[in-house]
Design brief:
Strand order of the largest sheet: 1-2-3
Number of helices: 7
Shape: globular
Largest sheet: 3 strands, antiparallel
Order of helices and strands: HEEEHHHHHH
Distance between the termini: 35 Å
């Protein structure tokens, strides 16, 4: 455990103790960075196959993780494929164990993710060249909110409507409001705030 979060290696040991022998544990798909000038973004799909309760029945669990400089501390960002593989394995093991808390390797401890994402979406300029907070939410912000909600098991539509404003669609959210939402999700991830019960339960078909 690191600050209350289980490590991937710890999840692996517990999984074999309570679920059965792990027969296969491997990346099933790897999308390495194509950036020649830096670590870039890497995505890995990882699968774990159990001999379920050592009964001879095989059960497979898989999940995906991506790594880039905005969601990973610098020490690990230099090895994006390996870090993404560890994160994806941790998520697959959490899924098998039905554990909601994040694995230690999924957390970013030394960076303000919300500020980094805001800087990255600020490249979407208004006609006068300035970032306008009243502009509609950007695709980058939507994707980031979706990713964080999936990781934290949060219902996207319930979450965006948990404040003072009401939205029928995420497209009605402004950039400024989206930035505040990202900050809230970051606080949830770093355990600075507790996730309300009424927003829990990720729905992949929320769009």
């Amino acid at each position: 455990m690191i600050d209350g979060n289980p490590t991937c290696a710890g999840l692996r040991r517990v999984a074999e103790d309570v679920l059965g022998s792990i027969i296969v544990s491997r990346p099933s798909q790897v999308f390495p960075s194509t950036d020649p000038n830096g670590p870039g973004r890497a995505t890995v799909v990882f699968e774990v196959i159990f001999n379920w309760m050592d009964s001879g029945e095989m059960r497979t669990f898989s999940d995906v993780a991506d790594v880039w400089h905005g969601n990973t501390d610098d020490l690990y960002c230099a090895h994006p494929v390996a870090t993404a593989s560890t994160r994806a394995e941790g998520r697959a093991l959490r899924k098998a164990l039905k554990i909601r808390c994040l694995a230690a390797e999924e957390l970013t401890r030394k960076k303000d993710i919300e500020s980094i994402v805001r800087s990255s979406v600020a490249s979407t300029k208004s006609v006068d060249g300035e970032w306008d907070g009243e502009d509609p939410i950007s695709n980058s912000q939507i994707n980031f909110i979706d990713t964080k909600c999936k990781q934290l098991n949060i219902n996207v539509l319930e979450f965006i409507n948990s404040g003072s404003d009401s939205y029928e669609s995420i497209d009605e959210v402004s950039k400024q409001k989206a930035s505040k939402m990202l900050s809230v999700l970051n606080n949830y991830q770093n355990k600075k705030k507790n996730i309300p019960e009424n927003v829990k339960g990720y729905d992949k078909n929320w769009r």
